[in-house]
Write a structure and sequence with these properties.
The protein has two domains: 2-225, P-loop containing nucleotide triphosphate hydrolases (Rossmann fold); 233-353, RNA polymerase II/Efflux pump adaptor protein, barrel-sandwich hybrid domain (OB fold (Dihydrolipoamide Acetyltransferase, E2P), Beta Barrel), CATH 2.40.50. The chain has 361 residues and is of the alpha+beta class. It has helices at 37-45, 73-76, 93-102, 113-119, 135-148, 165-181, 193-199, 217-224, 325-331, 354-357, and strands spanning 2-11, 14-23, 26-30, 52-57, 60-64, 69-70, 78-82, 153-157, 186-190, 202-207, 210-216, 233-244, 247-252, 255-259, 269-274, 279-281, 292-304, 307-314, 317-323, 338-343, 349-353. The protein contains ten helices and 21 strands. It starts with a strand and ends with a helix. Strand 4 (52-57) and strand 5 form a beta hairpin. The protein has a six-stranded mixed β-sheet, with helices on both faces. Strands 2-1-4-5-6 form a five-stranded antiparallel β-sheet, with helices on one face. A five-stranded antiparallel β-sheet has the order 14-13-12-15-21. 24% of the residues lie in helices and 38% in strands. It binds adenosine-5'-triphosphate. Adenosine-5'-triphosphate binds next to helix 1. Residues 1-233 form the ABC transporter domain. GO terms for molecular function: ABC-type transporter activity; ATP binding; ATP hydrolysis activity; molybdate ion transmembrane transporter activity. This is Molybdate ABC transporter, ATPase subunit. Residues 287-352 form the Mop domain.
């Protein structure tokens, strides 16, 4: 997908002035509340009309003030999935889904209904009403309805923010796999950095009505690590859990990781570990209470706000830690240095279990 938006839109005392071109199939729109994210996507979908400028999507001009072009929303072939799923409460799951299908011109009805419902794991729900579905099921039906319209672009405006953490991370694989399977690019809006990293490749940062930054989602997370109260979140896919001495032990490329808390009830999953929870030692500490101690080589160092980020290769796995510049000087840490990284078994948090991630298979 290739999208360029060069436009202005005034809404009372708020003005959005967008000027960007972006290429890719998994694009993120990130920024604080009130920055203009929804306004941007509403302009793209044709729900709002720019005061001036141009919108071009894959070579098709959707809007041009100078050429007096303004394609109506239904001709833009852009589908939307919102935080609130907006399903028709009086219709069954099947009828809600078919609503998307019927909106699609017959020559474009290339999405296989049965293939899609199987992929979304809603094939057993087709004859149920939508009012008593779980939040995650409703969101999968809403996604299915949007996909059945065979859009050229899917806009997802905070589709996960009404869901609790467990459901949020269960639904992400569906969003990604459906887009990949049916080759439909998406624009994903969120103010969660972890969601950005799991869902997108390139991110546009919207601040005060401007595109303040455009970078890869990983780079953005590194850039913001120093200012973030949660630091940089290491996302670790761990498997092969066994219980030992009251802790759960997962495989790590060159060894094992010890986790505690509610992490033991799944054989595999996606876990987070903050850069703030990793302590760096120059030499092997003689004795330490933290259950995880890995020998690591520093692969790179970078500045982020008032912090130094340290990329580590630890026994074949990668971690990112942060320290203050003074500590980096005292420890004389440079690229290539050998260090030891320690972190507690309790520092991990499970985002999703392997079962939910396999839903995307
Ligand atoms: N129809 C409108 N009329 C007047 N002002 C509006 C209108 N729609 C949005 N705004 C204002 O425009 C600004 C940007 O709103 P927008 O919803 O685009 O932000 P956002 O980044 O999506 O925020 P959030 O993350 O909270 O959804 C806000 O100050 C909002 O109050």
């Amino acid at each position: 997908m290739n999208l360029s938006m060069m436009l202005t839109k005034r809404l009372n005392d708020f003005t959005l002035a967008a000027d960007f071109s972006v290429e890719g199939n998994r694009i993120g729109i990130f920024g604080k509340s009130g920055g203009g994210k929804s306004t941007l996507v509403n302009l793209l979908a044709g729900l709002l009309t720019p005061d001036d400028g141009e919108i071009v999507l894959d070579g098709t001009c959707l809007f041009s003030a100078s050429r007096k072009i303004n394609l109506p929303p239904e001709r833009r072939r852009i589908a939307m999935v919102f935080q609130q799923h907006c399903l028709f409460p009086h219709l069954s799951v099947r009828k809600n889904l078919l609503y998307g299908f019927k909106r699609c011109p017959s020559e474009l009805r290339t999405i296989d209904f049965h293939d899609l419902v199987k992929l979304l794991k809603i094939d057993k729900l087709l004859d149920r009403g939508v009012t008593n579905l779980s939040g995650g099921e409703k969101q999968r039906v809403a996604l299915g309805r949007a996909i059945l319209a065979n859009p050229r672009l899917l806009l997802m405006d905070e589709p996960l923010s009404a869901l609790d953490d467990t459901l949020r991370f269960q639904i992400i694989p569906y969003l990604k796999s459906v887009s990949e399977r049916f080759d439909i690019p998406y624009l994903f809006i969120s103010h969660s950095m972890v969601e950005m990293r799991l869902m997108t490749e390139t991110v546009l940062v919207v601040e005060k009505g401007r595109i303040a930054e455009q970078s890869s989602s990983e780079q953005l997370a590194r850039n913001r690590m120093g200012q973030s109260p949660v630091g940089f979140i290491n996302l670790l896919e761990l498997e092969g859990m066994v219980e030992r001495d009251g802790l759960c032990v997962y495989r790590w490329p060159g060894g094992e990781l010890y986790l505690s808390g509610g992490n033991c009830d799944t054989p595999a999953g996606l876990f987070e570990l903050s850069s703030k929870d990793i302590i760096i030692f120059k030499r092997h500490p003689e004795a330490i209470s933290a259950r995880n101690l890995l020998e690591c080589r520093v692969s790179s160092l970078f500045e982020s706000g008032a912090k130094i980020g340290i990329e580590l290769e630890c026994d074949g796995g990668k971690l990112l830690a942060e320290i203050v510049p003074e500590a980096a000087r005292e420890l004389d840490i440079r690229q290539g240095s050998l260090v030891h990284a320690a972190f507690k078994a309790s520092a991990f948090r499970r985002l999703s279990s392997c079962e939910s991630r396999r839903n995307s298979d």
